[in-house]
């Protein structure tokens, strides 16, 4: 289905931009006198405008559905980021606990205690770095999802705005 096309209740596609082009052709094909169009087939004009009017609510519902989908995807991304962060925290706590336990066990001799402390610090640093990377990855994923959604919403809004502007110009 082309951008700007909408489905009617019976599943048939209505191409709103094409209908607007047909309206323009109808006016351009009529006689003009002092910037006024004469001899326009009013029946065809009203058929086309009624088809456009009937399809506009579908465009609005489509934009509303897109907005709801956007909100759902953002919420899913936020929840996924929170879960990743929670897992990273638990993993870092587990590693830290293991490191502390290992350090306690190795404290008996001075050299072993020094090595254990160094190793524990390294494990903690790695755990913190891992948690930071997981958070960054979750944030990048959420940002990417939001950027894609923003593009989709912008395209839908542009289509709606162009249709409204054409109709407003036609109504003048």
Report what the structure shows.
The chain has helices at 16-28, 42-106, 110-171; strands at residues 5-7, 13-15, 31-33, 36-38. The protein contains 3 helices and 4 strands. Helices cover 81% and strands 7% of the residues. It is rod-shaped. The strands form 2 sheets. It has a two-stranded antiparallel ribbon. Strands 3-4 form a two-stranded antiparallel sheet. Strand 3 and strand 4 form a beta hairpin. It is mostly helical and 172 residues long. The protein has one domain. The longest helix has 65 residues, at 42-106.
Outline the fold blueprint.
Elements: E1 5-7, E2 13-15, H1 16-28, E3 31-33, E4 36-38, H2 42-106, H3 110-171
Antiparallel strand pairs: 1-2, 3-4
Helix pairs in contact: 1-2, 1-3, 2-3
Number of helices: 3
Number of domains: 1
CA-based gyration radius: 31 Å
The best one-word shape is rod-shaped
Measured as a percent range, the helix fraction is over 70%
Number of strands: 4
User: What is the N-to-C order of secondary-structure elements (H for helix, E for strand)?
Assistant: EEHEEHH
- Spatial separation of the terminal alpha carbons: 31 Å
Class inferred from helices and paired strands: mainly alpha
Low-confidence runs: 1-9
User: What spatial order of strands do you see in the largest sheet?
Assistant: 1-2
Oligomer: single chain
Overall mean pLDDT: 78
- What is the beta-strand fraction? 5-15%
Q: Report the sheet with the most strands, covering strand number, pairing sense and barrel closure.
A: 2 strands, antiparallel
């Amino acid at each position: 289905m082309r951008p700007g096309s909408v489905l009617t209740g019976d599943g048939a596609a209505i191409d709103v931009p094409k209908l607007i082009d047909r309206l323009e052709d109808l006016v351009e094909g009529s006689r003009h006198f002092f910037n006024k169009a004469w001899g326009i087939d009013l029946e065809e004009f009203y058929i086309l405008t009624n088809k456009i009017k009937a399809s506009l609510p579908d465009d609005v519902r489509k934009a509303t559905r897109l907005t709801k989908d956007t909100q759902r995807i953002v919420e899913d991304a936020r929840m996924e980021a929170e879960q990743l962060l929670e897992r990273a925290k638990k993993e870092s706590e587990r590693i830290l606990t293991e490191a502390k336990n290992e350090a306690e066990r190795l404290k008996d001799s001075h050299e072993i205690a020094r090595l254990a402390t160094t190793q524990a610090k390294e494990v903690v640093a790695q755990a913190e770095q891992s948690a930071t990377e997981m958070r960054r990855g979750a944030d990048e994923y959420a940002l990417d999802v939001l950027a894609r959604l923003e593009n989709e919403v912008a395209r839908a809004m542009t289509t709606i705005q162009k249709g409204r502007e054409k109709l407003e110009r036609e109504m003048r």
